[in-house]
């Protein structure tokens, strides 16, 4: 046998068997939709009617009875006027787990803002902490300082 015959003898079986090595139909992985395991709705508000500055705080512990992706959404509204004698009030909204801060925002004058976050593979407890300070000026026609927070938390697995 010459070299050309040997090369063809080697190449022809490879060409004939190459179709057997791959499947005719591509395989597709079915992606299962995520299911809501738990939902939490956390609503807080406060309005200050006092002339002098005062503070208010709230801590809420949310126990997650499973693990998965945690979807967090908050609608935060606040108004804090600028007094002549002291600093402007504010609201600070913080979400944490253990000693780690996951989300934090401070508002001192906004009509309405939305914030969204997603944390993957969450389990355990999360803590929502709200700290606020404010006052009212009875000499103007504006309302007393206030804030309103509406949060939705969904655990998806």
Under the CATH scheme, the architecture is Sandwich
Give the percentage of residues in beta strands.
over 45%
How would you write the strand order of the largest sheet?
1-6-2-5-3-4
The percent range for helix content is 10-25%
Shape: elongated
Sheet with most strands: 6 strands, antiparallel
Mean pLDDT: 86
Parts with pLDDT < 50 across at least 5 consecutive residues: none
Task: Provide a concise account of the structure shown.
The protein has 157 residues and is mainly beta.
Topology:
Elements: H1 3-18, E1 36-47, E2 54-79, E3 90-97, E4 100-107, E5 109-134, E6 146-156
Antiparallel strand pairs: 1-6, 2-5, 2-6, 3-4, 3-5
Task: Give your account of this protein's structure.
With 157 residues, this protein is mainly beta. The chain has one helix at 3-18; strands spanning 36-47, 54-79, 90-97, 100-107, 109-134, 146-156. A 6-stranded antiparallel sheet has the order 1-6-2-5-3-4, with no helix packed on it.
């Amino acid at each position: 046998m010459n070299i050309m015959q040997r090369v063809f003898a080697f190449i022809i079986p490879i060409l004939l068997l190459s179709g057997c090595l791959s499947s005719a139909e591509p395989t597709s992985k079915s992606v299962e939709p995520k299911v809501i395991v738990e939902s939490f709705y956390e609503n807080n508000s406060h309005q200050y009617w006092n002339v002098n500055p005062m503070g208010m705080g709230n801590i809420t512990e949310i126990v997650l009875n499973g693990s998965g992706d945690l979807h967090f959404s908050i609608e935060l509204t606040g108004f804090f006027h600028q007094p002549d004698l002291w600093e402007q009030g504010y609201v600070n909204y913080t979400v944490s787990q253990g000693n780690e801060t996951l989300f934090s925002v401070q508002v001192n004058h906004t009509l309405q803002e939305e914030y969204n976050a997603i944390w993957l593979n969450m389990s355990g407890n999360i803590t929502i902490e709200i700290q606020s300070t404010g006052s009212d000026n009875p000499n103007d026609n504006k309302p007393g300082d206030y804030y309103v927070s509406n949060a939705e938390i969904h655990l998806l697995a």
